[in-house]
Amino acid sequence: MKSAPVLTLRESRGPEDLEELTNIWRDSVEATHHFLPPEVIDRLEPVVRDEYLPNLTVQVAEVNGCLVGFIGMQARQIAMLFVADEARSMGVGSMLLDWAKQRFSTLTLDVNEQNPRAAVFYIRRGFKPRGRSETDAQGLLFPLLHMSWSVEPTG
User: Is 21 exposed, middle or buried (0-12, 13-18, 19+ CB in 10 A)?
Assistant: First the structure.
């Protein structure tokens, strides 16, 4: 009988993981961000690789030693959460999000309004829309939903 794939999390190894993380980002964006023209993705890729990823706290998900997703944190802000297309709907995103929720009592994130599947993913995991911007972080006309989550008080 074949054993099930083993999903594990670990800290990013920084420069050693950078190319693979960038590939996961691109793979995920091409599969889910149909509203982004290829030239915008091409323009964003070096920014993600050279500016965003090196300045985030990154936790990666591996299946049997192969990277399949990552979450990038900037304090309590989820700056990036991407899962390789072949690993979507396998619990990778939920596991990465749970990792962040275990570390912080409040979290914020921005999600592209034109990526409703991602917005629903976060809403189902307790995030609430708190606002909206007409443009993304690059100033492009791709609206963002601002969302937040906090631990429910007990008692």
Answer: buried
Question: Starting from the edge strand earliest in sequence, which strands make up the sheet with 128-133, in order?
Answer: 7-11, 57-63, 66-74, 77-83, 106-112, 144-150, 128-133
Q: 117 is written with which tokens?
A: 């599947």
pLDDT digits (tens, 9 = 90+) for 32-91: 888 888 898 899 999 999 999 999 999 999 998 899 999 999 999 999 999 998 878 788
Give the N- to C-terminal CA distance of the chain in Å, as an integer.
46
Nearest 5°: the CA angle 84, 100, 12 is 55
Strand 106-112, strand 77-83: pairing: parallel
The pTM (predicted TM-score) of the whole model is 0.90
Which residues partner with 108 through β-bridges? 77, 148
Give DSSP secondary structure letters for 22-38: HHHHHHHHHHH-TTS-H
Q: What is the pLDDT of residue 108?
A: 96
Write the DSSP assignment of 48-65 as a string of letters.
IIIIIGGGSEEEEEEETT
Q: Are 12 and 58 in contact (CB under 8 A)?
A: yes
Distance between CA 129 and CA 25 in Å, rounded?
24
Give, as one character, the DSSP assignment of residue 134: S
